[in-house]
Amino acid sequence: MGQTRTAEFEEFAAARWSSLIHLARLLTGGDRHRAEDLVQEALVKLWFAWPKVADEAPEAYARKVMVRAAARSARRRWWGERPVEHLPDVAALGDVSTAVAERSRLESALARLPARQRAAVVLRYYQDLPEAQVARLLGCPVGTARSHAARGVARLRLLLADVIEPVG
Amino acid sequence: MDHFERQLAQLMRTTEERVSFDPRHRDRLHAGVRARRRTRAAQVGVGTLLAVGGLGLGLFLLPAGTDRVEPTAPRPGPASGPSSSEITGPSPTGEAPSPSWSPSFRPSFPGSTTSAPPATGDGATSTGTATSATSGVPQGPGGTSTSGTTDPTGTALSDPGTSAPPSGEISAPPSGTFGSG
Predict the structure, then answer these.
(1) Low complexity: which segments have biased composition (chain B) (predicted)?
(2) Is residue A123 assigned to a domain?
(3) Which of B29, B30, B34, B37 to mutate to test the interface with A (most CBs of A within 10 A)?
(4) In chain B, which end has fewer C-beta atoms inside a 10 angstrom radius, N or C?
(5) How many CB atoms lie within 10 A of CB A154?
(6) Does A57 fall in a domain?
(7) Can you give the residue range of the structural domain that contains A25?
(8) Are B158 and B109 in contact (CB under 8 A)?
(9) B84 CB-near residues (< 8 Å, 6+ apart)
């Protein structure tokens, strides 16, 4: 890839990094390290496809790679984690706020869903994609994608009952 | 979309955390690109080796396979005329010819060039032939056995080496002529 293309790619990665990381965190149920791995994998694949997709929809390409990798992750038995002697730094108590608490609740609730249901819910409600596009990204029929999303939302309805107040 | 679903979508969007693209992310990305490039080069190399190896093996095994499927030569059909000199020797009955039946050992019989050896093998004919063959005595025109003179067709003692005996065309002599003499 030429210097111009490389600069374009790095500019795209820097601009979309935050939203890609957030999408990856939702897709992985709040696992920060897996989310970074997911974005990394998607961007590496995007690098090689950049000459073809740069002028079209590079973010959609990265999103597709991330969603399929996240849906595949349910079948993966080992994530390459190794035990270490010293634990990494943890967040201080003062960092906890209402937003962080809500995010933590949301991510822990998403983590309790199966991978494909989680991906369907995130694509449908966070990315606001129509069902047909969700099905295309997941690589399944529309009815299956609709079923995944409905079951995921029904489960979240139970798990997040105290976070999202019902309409009184 | 009901109230919960709207709230869920809003919660997903509002909890987004701003994360900057650090140099460590860039370095890690470049390292990942290099690793993937190496992996792809290795895959292409292995694929090329496998393709060349498979092609070579196929070409090596190809001639042997062609020999197996090659059609056989057509069988020679039966001779239709007495002039074909290739069909000589054993009688159609399957008897093994005796060495004493060679043309140099047995003079030809006058008037028997168009005749045929015994085509059918009943017991009398075979016995007579074997006797004359094993005796080793040349049989001249005058010294032939009585069967030769009594043969109405004159074909009984003809030389098998001088005429072709298509079995279906030339009838055998009457068996009684040999046995009676």
Answers:
(1) 97-138, 146-155
(2) yes
(3) B29
(4) N
(5) 11
(6) yes
(7) 3-76+96-159
(8) yes
(9) B164
The predicted-structure confidence for B28-85, as pLDDT tens digits, reads as follows 999 999 999 999 999 999 999 999 999 999 998 887 655 556 666 766 666 665 554 4
Task: CATH number of the domain at A139, please.
Answer: 1.20.140.160
Does the global pTM surpass 0.80?
Answer: no
Output the CA–CA distances (angstroms, integers) from residue A48 to A6, A58, A63, B5, B32, in the order listed: 11, 11, 15, 37, 11
Contact B11 A106 (CB under 8 A): yes
Cα separation, A10 vs A15, whole angstroms: 8
Residues of B in contact with A22 (CB under 8 A): 15-17, 19
The tokens of B46 are what?
């292995």
Contact B29 A44 (CB under 8 A): yes
A11 contacts A53 by C-beta, under 8 angstroms: no
Which pLDDT tens digit goes with each residue over A127-160? 999 999 999 999 999 999 999 999 999 999 988 8
User: Is residue A10 in some structural domain?
Assistant: yes
CB contact under 8 A, B29 and A22: no
Nearest CA-CA distance, residue B54 and chain A, Å: 30
* A140's tokens: 């399944």
Taking the CA of residue A140 and the nearest CA in chain B, the distance in Å comes to 22
B19 touches A at CB < 8 Å: yes
Is A163 exposed, middle or buried (CB count within 10 Å of its CB: 0-12, 13-18, 19+)?
A: middle
- Residue B154 CB-density burial (10 A; 0-12 exposed, 13-18 middle, 19+ buried): middle
Residue-level pLDDT at A20:
93
Domain count, chain A: 1
Give the closest-approach CA distance of B22 to chain A in angstroms. 8
